[in-house]
Amino acid sequence: MTMILSDIIPIAIVGLFLFVIIRAGREPLWEEAYRRLGSNRQTMAAIVVMSLFIAIGILDSITVSVSNSGKPQTIVDVMFRGIPQERTYSEPMGTVTVGEPHPHELKHKHIFGTDGVGRDVFYNMLKGCRTAIIIGCLTQLIAMPVALVLGMLAGYFGKLTDDLIQYAYTVLDSIPGVLLLIVIITVLSLKGQERGLLQICTALGVTSWVQLCRLVRGETLKHRDRDYVRAARALGVSHGRILLRHILPNLLPILIITATLGVSGNIISETILTYLGVGVPPDIGSWGNMIDSARMELARQPVIWWNFSVASLAVLILVLCINIFGDALRDAVDPRLRS
Amino acid sequence: MLWYVARRILYSIPILIGVTLFTFLLFFVSVTPQQMARHNLSARNPKPAQIKAWVKQHGYDKPKVVQFVDYTKSLFTFQFGKSDATGQDISDRLRHGILPSTELGVIMFTASLITNVFFAVYFAYYRGTYVDNWGRLLCVVVMSITTPVFIIAGQYIFGIILKLWPIAGYHIGMTSWKFVFLPALIGVISGFGGSVRLYRTFILEEINQDYVRTARAKGVPEGRTLFLHVLKNAAIPFITSIVLSIPFLITGSLLYESFFGIPGIGNITVEAVQGQDFATIRAVTFFYTILYVIGAIMTDIAYAAADPRIRLE
Amino acid sequence: MPSATLSTRAYEASPNVGQASLPVTHIKMPDVLLQLEDLKTYFTVEGGPARAVDGVSFTVEQGKTLAIVGESGCGKSMTGLSILQLVPEPAGYIDGGKVLFEGKDLLDSTWEQMREIRGKDIAMIFQEPMTSLNPVRTIGWQLVEAMEVHGTARGAEARKRAMDSLDRVGLSGPDVVMRQYPHELSGGMRQRVMIAMALSNRPKLLIADEPTTALDVTVQAQILALIRELQQETGMSVLLITHDLGIVAEVSDSVAVMYAGQVVESASTLDLFKSPMHPYTQGLFASIPSRSRRGQDLLTLDGIVPPATAWPSGCRFEPRCRHAWGTCKSVAPKAAPKGADRPVRCHLYDPDIADRPSTSAAPTAEVLP
Q: Is the peptide bond before A302 cis (omega within 30 degrees of 0)?
């Protein structure tokens, strides 16, 4: 098994999230939260489905061999080796191609049909999982440290530091998000960098840290004036230690919940960016691309609806599960909802 | 109160300056003129002479400070220059785009607001019942469907299958509403989830407050409590959330106008992005930023008007 | 002599209308205005129902003040809210019992009937004046509302009455106050506004839930004096909920001591202070710092109140009681045993309990037969 660097990233991301979740589980606050989560069937179903998507994403990250044309083959590719590429579109469970002057026989059954170049739609959807998860999670990993550090500094030290940081993010925030995204991605591509997942994640991260930062700053302000911080200062504890060991643990619940809900927002943003033309390039499979191609497909005769439907459903299900999970997590951790 | 307004407007000036500086750094400093020229010239491998000529023609060879001053001046006087791609006058194009954009934007915003507030009050009033629970589930599902899906599916269902409204295009004048109706409808449907949940939370937060208990102890009927006590207080976070919805309006204008062929500013923007027309992108970015800043100021003023505790500071 | 407004309305509302009539102005004997019988208010929480109010009974006589005393969590506030059926839903609900107001059970009333009673026949003021007033409405608007929703007065008439009531509760410059917002007033002023609002429609009963707890001591005295004055002026009854024995001594005619959701002792204020009978009441009095015990350790009651989801099956005070013995753990004491001249929820005064120890529990001798 040869693992390339880009393969390690998704696995590392997922591993990091798992680590945080398990580590947090040791805290009594989270123990009770997890118990509450586990008792709700809807939430458990959402978690199971989410894990399915994540598992597919990981499977798609592990390179197993190299194909004839030199492209790396992942586990997912290997699973679909038996399903050949057709000439062009075909209906789900169909027997012939559609949209051609003369329909041709299909070489194999395709559950969800095939797309314009004859690729199995189910295969496309599975390939899109990895893209969605990377965009969702990597963006948060880029945005969170920035938001955390700046937010804590601004909230804790106040005065000039606070003014500067607030000025910085107000300026950034005044430029409407989608435009800033477009500008950053366009600038990056002009500098010669191929538009890839990393560029999009960076752009999304730069535009989304502000909301998180505001939250962190607000919470830090709340805790800075609490008596336990004053007590620590009176004991001579250094600022850094207070920030790290007192304030940060109190920020974690709200941080984790907002970050989780941000993942689903990023997945949706990817579809919008691709739709506008500055998203994931077509050679990297993504659900956004599948939805975007539907623009033309739905206008054809006969109507090609399966590509669009499968991708839309995939986005809907994954985002819905993340939202349900995030909401349930928020309710479970909320101290007011406790007896 | 007047002093509050003045202070608010004054604070926006350094923000605008900051934005100008930041966009300048993005546009002019991070990308070298050579890279821009190389990109805009149609030839595969442009000769150095061609590059130099293009750079000089578009004024990218002057020293950075001079460029910054020129840039700032042109922005604040709304003289955006000529498009990098087509050579057309940008300000002129923007002027023509304002009317369609405003029409679509205002209709979508107002319709969304009324719908969302109505359902938020409805779900809050029936909280805990199956109406509320199914309503909330519906909201989460609608929230999880991405806007392009709504647009593509909506246009397909309403325009092609049901043939109810024109699917694209625009005419200035009395019949323009016909073209705006479908995108506005889809916009209201797609924007349903998140806002309804948020407003419902605002209302429920207020319902649990002490003064509501006092009102009930006074014998105030439930309906009056809801409308004259709860909603007036819920208006405060509601107004502040309006500011947050402005960026969504702008994203919306990009998506809806480009798909439905409405020649507004959003459409101009998308064309500029696809054509990598930097000059237009700069102009549009500034334009939308000004819009956002003005919107934020107006929202702050409305917020002060609604909350007497702020007014007297 | 009770005022005309009270007596006419009471007469018309009472179930005795149509029977042999007494001249209304004749009423001088103590008349029961409010009677609670075995009231139960529970909350649905994780781990079972929390029995916040678990079989509470007491009586409030016309023109008199009854104080309900207890520590935090004993259910006294919830009792007050239950009378007006303002228990926080959906978790809270009234599980049983009777709330007899002028002879009629309020728990049988429809929502609309209750709404008419609230703010008109029974009024309530709360502990936190900071948050109990609507922050975005002027004082005048809120006062006028109290009258308009019951049709007592409208428009200019209501505004005039509102200003008069502000004056009556001791707020100077009432015309200015009418136009102000709650956050512009101090805590004491806000509580006076609350009182003015509660009294707008001349209620027969005022429920005051810890009205002075959030106020400074000097303001406390003023507010209490004001309530007392207004009571004498209008002849209304007051149900005062508090944790402060000092307040009880100052303003109440009779007392009911609550612990763990039940009334453990009730008596006239004089009798209770002269000879507290229940060990809990004795503990309360003993833990008041006193000059006579200068230099000695402050007395405390060991232990804490058990959680409302798991009241002990025997006496609820048993874990903390100095006099407890075997039976106390297993058998719940009766609310009003034969061996005492007032309701005391304690086996020490119950001659039917076999293995009672012979030592007396109370400081005075008039306890055991």
A: yes
What DSSP character marks residue C172?
S
- What is d(CA B153, CA B269) in angstroms, rounded to the nearest whole number? 23
Helix (H, G, I), strand (E, B) or coil at C36: strand
Single-letter code of the amino acid located at B61: D
On whether any CB of chain A is under 8 Å from the CB of B91, the answer is: no
End-to-end alpha carbon distance in chain C: 40
Q: Chain B: which residues have CB within 8 Å of chain C?
A: 128, 209-211, 213-221, 224, 229, 232-233, 236, 306-309, 312
Q: Which amino acid is at A15?
A: G
For A14, the token pair is: 């997922």
Q: Dihedrals φ, ψ of B257, to 5°?
A: -65, -40
Look up residue B211 and give its two tokens: 């003064």
Q: Measured between alpha carbons, how far apart are the two ends of chain B, in Å?
A: 9
- In angstroms, the separation between the Cα of residue C34 and the nearest Cα of chain A is 32
Scored b (16 or more CB within 10 A) or e, C263-279 reads: bbbbbebebbeebbbbb
Closest residue of chain A to C43, computed from CA coordinates: A339
**Residue B64 and residue C83: Cα distance in Å, rounded?**
77
User: How high is the ipTM of this complex?
Assistant: 0.83
Q: Which residues contact C239 (CB under 8 A, 6 or more apart)?
A: C34, C60, C65, C66, C68, C80, C83, C205, C206, C207, C208
Could you list the pLDDT tens digit for every one of the 369 residues in chain C?
Answer: 333 333 334 444 444 444 444 334 444 456 888 999 899 999 888 778 888 898 899 999 999 999 999 888 788 899 999 999 998 877 888 888 999 998 889 898 898 999 999 989 999 999 888 899 999 999 999 999 999 999 888 889 999 999 999 988 888 889 999 999 999 998 889 999 999 999 888 899 999 999 888 888 888 888 888 888 888 888 899 999 998 888 888 889 999 999 988 999 999 999 988 888 888 888 888 777 777 777 777 777 777 777 778 888 888 888 888 887 788 888 888 877 777 788 888 888 877 766 666 544 444 432 222
Closest residue in chain B to residue A176, using alpha carbons only? B247
In whole angstroms, give the CA distance from residue A163 to residue B84.
Answer: 38
Report how many Cβ contacts below 8 Å link chain A to chain B.
Answer: 132
- Nearest CA-CA distance, residue C117 and chain B, Å: 7
Residues 27-46 of C with CB under 8 A from A: 45-46
SS3 per residue for A263-326: HHHHHHHHHHHHHHCCCCCCCCCCHHHHHHHHHHHCCCCCCCCHHHHHHHHHHHHHHHHHHHHH
